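Session log. Operator J.P. requested a structure for one protein chain; no other inputs attached. Running the standard single-chain path with token output.
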Amino acid sequence: MAETLNLSRFLPYLLSITSNAVSDRIAREYQTRFGLKIPEWRVLAMLGQGKPMTQRELVTATVMDKVTVSRATAALVERRLVERSPSRHDGRSHHLALTQEGVGLYEMIAPAALAMEQQILAGLNEQERAQLTSILAKLRDAVSALK
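Structure written below.
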């Protein structure tokens, strides 16, 4: 007989439900306070680091699929939070950057995001936080090595 799978101790399940819980809590905050969905926030956060990026670069950096990045970008452009400018190196590509309004929104959201992160991590001491970061990196590396 095959080994019994205990879902409540199965790593992919535990990671998934934890990720969903964190994402859902943060999504409520971004949606309620700033009118942003998670993909829009991720694009805004990447562009908030100050370097214009192409959609392809955003797909890689955010680990979201190209359709999700395209929709998020379109929503942000429509809200005038992001602007497109043609790429000098690739006529089919555009560089995306925050507008002044986008920078202003980013500067409001970033402290709220960091405060939410602190609330989520409040039950962990500094050593546990460092261990969590290290363990998650090791798991990502292990999964990458399986490809």
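Operator note: The longest helix spans residues 11-34.
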